[in-house]
Amino acid sequence: MPRPPAFVGRLAQNIRFDGLWWRRLAYVGSVYGPEWWKRHSPPAIAAVLFATVGPNRRGAVANMQRILAGPERAAARRAALAMFVQFAHCMTETMECYGPRPKPIRIDLPKEDALAQALADGDGAVVVTGHFGNWDIAAKALREYGRPINLVMAREVNATTHEFVRAARERAGVRVIYSDSSVFSSLNMIRALRRNEVVAIQLDRPVGAGNTRAVPFFGAPAAFPTGPFVLARVSGAPLVPVFAPRLGTRHYAIRVCGRFALLRDARDARALDRVMEDVVQAFERVVRKFPTQWFQFAPFWPATTVAAAATPVRDARASARAPVSAVAECDVVVIGGGPAGSTAAGFLAQSGARVVLLEKARFPRYHIGESLLSATLPILEALGVSDAIAAAGFVHKPGGTFIWGARDEPWSFFFREDPGGRPHAYHVVRAEFDHILLRHAAALGVDVREGHQVHSVDYDGVTTVNATDDRGSRTHLAATYVIDASGQQALLGQRDGLRQFDAFFKNLAVFGYFAGAEPLSGPVAGNILSATFADGWVWFIPLHDGTTSVGAVIDAHRFASAAAGDPGALYRRLLAACPPVATRLQTARLVSPVRVIRDYSYCSHRFYGPGYLLAGDAACFIDPVFSTGVHLACLAGYLAAQAIASILQGAAPEGALREYDSRYRAAFERYLNFLYFFYDHHSDADSYFWRARKVLGTESGIDARTAFVRLLSGAGDLLDGDAALAEDLATRHARMSAATQRGRFAAVPGAELFRVRGTLGEMEKRTHEKKYRATD
Fold first, then answer.
1. Closest CA to 443 of 345, 551, 548, 376
2. Burial of 344 by CB count in 10 Å (0-12 exposed, 13-18 middle, 19+ buried)?
3. What's the rounded Cα separation, in Å, for the pair 268 and 263?
4. Count of alpha carbons within 13 Å of 642, Cβ hemisphere only?
5. Sign (positive or negative) of CA dihedral 41, 47, 49, 55
6. Which of 164-173, 329-338, 624-633, 709-718 has the lowest average pLDDT?
7. Nearest to 334 by CA among 448, 410, 421
8. For the stretch 486-522, what's the b/e string if a residue is b when 16 or more beta carbons lie within 10 angstroms of its beta carbon?
């Protein structure tokens, strides 16, 4: 059967009862109609809707039966009709109030105002409200407190009314933050609270992909979103329930029902539950007094009573998949406490999930990979940990300086050159940085268990994680999902044979730490220095403890035996062969052991499996020249938390996991694609800039140098359109890898763009006598 033309669909949306045509008709009557129309038309319109919109009528009647303690159905129908009438009156008065000809509105303010006291303290306020009374008029009235009001809302179900409603609210000075499951929505909420503003969130309807808890409400458990409570805990802002019942024509009251605090470092797992129960009880008292003003048109309680009020709510698909609520000890087990694991666990805890993190070491512990990218900062900020990281005193990294390519002169880039990015990143001591992230995850409510080695993961409907702690005690945890963030150990990826090594990048890194090294100075002070030499390249990273991380990346096949025999001698020889770094170490002394790590690039052919997903180095690893390790780990943690939170909320698992795989793989492939080209040491800086523009898919819109900065800052990983780019890059990379293994890379279509003839093997032919000197 042929599909109807597009205009037919738009017409159907417009003339639906919640469509734009009816909204505009109601707006004209509410703003320009005579007084008798404004007073008497709402009941008539409400009666028509009550008679014709069956699902909403049945939902309202079912809710009224619960609120009014099981009256006969006729009484519940009368109360439901009264609810429709009150809703019509509130809509009429809202449109009049927000229109060009508003009438005076009487609003009774509370004598003891917890909201005013909270704003006086300067921490902002998380206001929880509901589809009750007239919040739009209340929000406009709350502007009298002198602080901006931000409404957090889901987008309109009917797309034709979305822009109409948004514009009306903004004209009235009420900002709207849409809960679109993006890192930026939560980030905007936290920023508003830090500006001592009000962030108002609906209590009685989950928005976005956040989790819910079942809380007693009118004698039976009902699902309430954890989002407002987690936001209050993460931001440190007080939580204030505020409701606005209608008392008569253009007459409302503001009911402020107390003030609640959730400490950011609270480790009591029941603290959030207790505050939720207190707030829901306050909401119940208000609804009990004004039952026909709770505008809930869908059944709010499940058809059958849930046995335990505190049991997290699961959808039918999750229940069919496994009896999670009956046997699971937690929602998610995270294996590994590095940046990927801590970030994923923290975001999941923010969404209200119950998370256990198992880490085999006891922190702080040593780890390589000290240099961050600037695009990691928004992720850390959304997690609520950026203040702790800033307070640690890590070295600011404004960009990077390279002695790389066809020219011997150094060239630099700066994060500030991307107008949409952050002006700096950090060089971190990973033992401190990782410990900060792990402690913060615990503060968010994650059950962190250090000294726990995971030795197997079983899946039989429920995923069971088996671990042994460093005292020999065994632990068995059942969970809905597992995140394998175990690093290069890749417990599940190795078990299932998912890892595929890149035939082109098989290197070793030999590294150590120096005290007294000569740092870069002037405009490039704080930059990472990456310098090529005949046998590979060297990194030079200043750290806040007074040491400098210095490492040489070399071909594994050629240097494996030397690295195994006397790594110290090999290290000294390699550094001496790189004059730009050697001259900065003339008066420095080595203050650490010389370490060697295998630096092979690899990628798993899929990032998820039955009951689990892979994150960070457990999924993929890339050559460290672009300092992408921590950034990709934190990005994976954020994306993994998004995917699993949506599954816990009821999304189809396969779709959510495929989207995670696509988005994370796209970020990894961007760097890998560019890395092939970057390793052509015969290119010049301009070639790198133009290639970055191609990799980002930005043939127009930004200049080539900005594209290079955006790619190396990681900002491209937060852009839209990842899925299409991932498919394209995956196809090209598979073709390149296969050709490289057969020794026929030059035959690959488009190989001339990569110019990989300047590999490390050819660089060995370059003279050792040529002097390089990094200028400031």
1. 345
2. buried
3. 10
4. 27
5. positive
6. 709-718
7. 448
8. bbeebbbbeebebbeebbbbbbbbbbbbbeebbebee
Q: Distance between CA atoms of 717 and 711, rounded to whole angstroms?
A: 8
- Measured at the CA of 623, the angle between CA 622 and CA 628, to 5 degrees, comes to 65
**Distance, CA of 707 to chain centre:** 23
Q: Are 756 and 745 in contact (CB under 8 A)?
A: yes
Q: What is the Cα–Cα distance from 368 to 592, expressed in whole angstroms?
A: 13
Q: What is the largest CA-CA distance in the chain?
A: 97
Count other Cβ atoms within 10 Å, centred on residue 231. 24
Residue 596 forms beta bridges with which residues? 510
Using CA atoms, how far apart are residues 190 and 197, in angstroms rounded to an integer?
Answer: 10
CB-CB contact of 639 with 702 (8 Å): no
Quote the tokens at residue 519.
């740092």
By C-alpha distance, which of 372, 273, 331 is closest to 465?
Answer: 331
Beta carbons within 8 Å of 634's beta carbon, 6+ residues apart: 339, 340, 343, 376, 379, 380
Residue 748 three-state SS: coil
Closest CA to 533 of 699, 764, 750: 764
519-544 mean pLDDT = 92
Contact between 616 and 485 (Cβ < 8 Å): yes
**Rounded Cα distance, 395 and 544, in Å:** 5
Query: How far apart are alpha carbons 363 and 286 in whole angstroms?
Result: 48
Q: How many C-beta atoms lie closer than 10 Å to residue 237's C-beta?
A: 29
- Dihedral (CA of 491, 496, 501, 506) sign: positive
H or E stretch including 366? none
- For 29, list phi and psi in degrees, rounded to 5: -65, -40
pLDDT per position as a tens digit, 544-556: 999 999 999 888 8
Q: How far is CA 334 from the centre of its chain?
A: 16
CA distance 229 to 23: 33
Q: What proportions of the chain, in percent to the nearest 5, are helix, strand and coil?
A: 45, 20, 35
- Cβ atoms of residues 483 and 339 within 8 Å: no
Query: Would residue 393 be called left, alpha or beta, if left means φ above 0 and alpha means ψ between -120 and 50 degrees?
Result: left
8 A C-beta contact, residue 218 and residue 291: no
Q: Give the integer Cα–Cα distance in Å for 507 and 183.
A: 35
Which residue matches tokens 């005193």?
393
Q: Write out the two tokens for 487.
A: 């690093």
Question: How many DSSP H helices and E strands does the chain contain?
Answer: 27, 30
Q: Binning pLDDT at 50, 70 and 90, where does residue 319 land?
A: very low
Q: Residues for the chain: how many in total?
A: 776
CA neighbours closer than 13 Å in the CB half-sphere of residue 716:
28
Would you state the structure tokens that stand for residue 317, as one six-digit string?
A: 């698909």
C-alpha of 351 from chain center: 10
Distance linking the first and last C-alpha atoms of the chain = 70
- Strand segments (E) across 485-632: 499-515, 528-533, 536-542, 547-555, 589-590, 595-604, 608-609, 612-614, 620-621
Q: How many Å apart are CA 48 and CA 69, to the nearest integer? A: 27
What pLDDT, in 10s, does the model give residues 429-462? 999 999 999 999 999 999 999 999 999 998 876 7
The answer to whether 713 and 374 are in contact (CB under 8 A) is yes
Give this prediction's pTM. Answer: 0.60
Q: Which two tokens stand for residue 36?
A: 């008798």
What type of residue sits at position 583? Answer: T
Q: Which pLDDT score, from 0 to 100, does residue 399 have?
A: 92
